[in-house]
Amino acid sequence: MTPSTLDKLQTRFDPQAASGMDEVFQFHFSDAGSHYLVVKDGSLAVEEGEHDAPSVTLSMSTDTLKGVMNGEINGMTAFMTGKLKATGNVMLATRLGSLFPAD
Fold first, then answer.
1. How large is the C-alpha radius of gyration of the chain?
2. How far apart are CA 82 and CA 85, in angstroms?
3. pLDDT digits (tens, 9 = 90+) for 66-88
4. Residues in domain SCP2 (predicted)?
5. Which residues contact 91 (CB under 8 A, 6 or more apart)?
6. In terms of Cα–Cα distance, which of 36, 80, 41 is closest to 55?
7. Rounded distance, CA 58 to CA 29, Å?
């Protein structure tokens, strides 16, 4: 994940949508290594590497993440076509749009 992508996630984060949450989103990028997001009661921490116990793990390219986050790629379509793989609490992945709304 590039620094600009991380910056965009930080600026787009909606603390109200994360109220009461305590979840870890692990990302494995085919072209940028591993990162995880810790969303806890309205706060966001972005970390590089692997979390010991993520709530959900998502594997994809950074381009797929960008497309999903900006609305150019439907997340369910990406999942069904194999561009996005998810394990763990996969329903959490559907909350990414509300946690990081488009501009």
1. 12
2. 6
3. 888 888 998 889 999 999 999 99
4. 15-100
5. none
6. 36
7. 8
The DSSP secondary structure of the chain, one letter per residue, reads: --HHHHHHHHHH--TTTTTT-EEEEEEEETTTEEEEEEEETTEEEEEES--SS-SEEEEE-HHHHHHHHTTSS-HHHHHHTTSSEEEESGGGGGGHHHHS---
Q: Which residue has the tokens 């970390």?
A: 47
pLDDT digits (tens, 9 = 90+) for 25-79: 999 999 988 999 999 999 999 999 999 999 999 999 999 988 888 889 988 899 9
CA dihedral (38, 13, 80, 83) in degrees, to 10, reads: -80
